[in-house]
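User: Please fill in residues for this 197-position structure.
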């Protein structure tokens, strides 16, 4: 709880320190909150803070400072039990491929349908589909194969109703292996497309 209050104080000081009358700078604090600990302030404590700020405002000729506005917004956001969007994203986000193939197997249709449903319900969400390969073959071949894998996953998602504007397809080829061992099992884990929200 002290960490969240400290974070709020830091955000307030950063925002007020960066603001000026003629500035076009927009400061958007990005806070990562674990789902289990979202409710940091109890309703009573939040209400006490709001009341103390209201008293402050009444004493200072009915004006609210920017610092007070930001602090009140942070308390309200935390008090409203905002759930991170990540809690609603599909869990399975990896499609595996056979050696030197780029065709998406039917065994991944259900997983892709769940991801497509999520994207259709959250039109502001964007998805990066990254194709990977194992280390066998030339660097150029593996890059192209990774791109075809990512493209085929994107095509499946579009057929399931996802808007193209929500998708970006990239290849990392043989770089960034899931398993760096040089065994058949490791190569199998490396032949994949990863869905990154």
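Assistant: Residues filled in for all 197 positions:
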């Amino acid at each position: 709880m002290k960490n969240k209050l400290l974070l709020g104080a830091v955000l307030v000081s950063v925002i007020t320190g960066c603001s000026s009358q003629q500035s076009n700078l927009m400061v958007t604090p990005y806070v990562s909150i674990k789902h289990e600990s979202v409710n940091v302030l109890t309703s009573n404590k939040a209400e006490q803070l709001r009341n103390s700020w209201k008293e402050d405002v009444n004493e200072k000729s009915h004006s609210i400072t920017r610092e007070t506005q930001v602090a009140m917004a942070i308390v309200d956001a935390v008090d409203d039990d905002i759930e991170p969007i990540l809690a609603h994203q599909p869990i399975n986000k990896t499609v595996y491929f056979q050696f030197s193939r780029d065709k998406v197997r039917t065994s991944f249709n259900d997983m892709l349908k769940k991801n497509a449903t999520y994207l259709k319900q959250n039109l502001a969400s964007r998805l990066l589909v990254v194709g990977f390969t194992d280390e066998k073959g030339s660097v150029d071949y593996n890059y192209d194969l990774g791109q075809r894998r990512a493209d085929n996953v994107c095509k499946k998602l579009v057929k399931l109703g996802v808007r193209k504007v929500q998708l970006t397809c990239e290849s990392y080829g043989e770089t960034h292996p899931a398993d760096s061992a040089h065994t058949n099992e490791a190569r199998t884990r490396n032949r994949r497309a990863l869905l990154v929200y």
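For context: Residues 2-79 form one domain.
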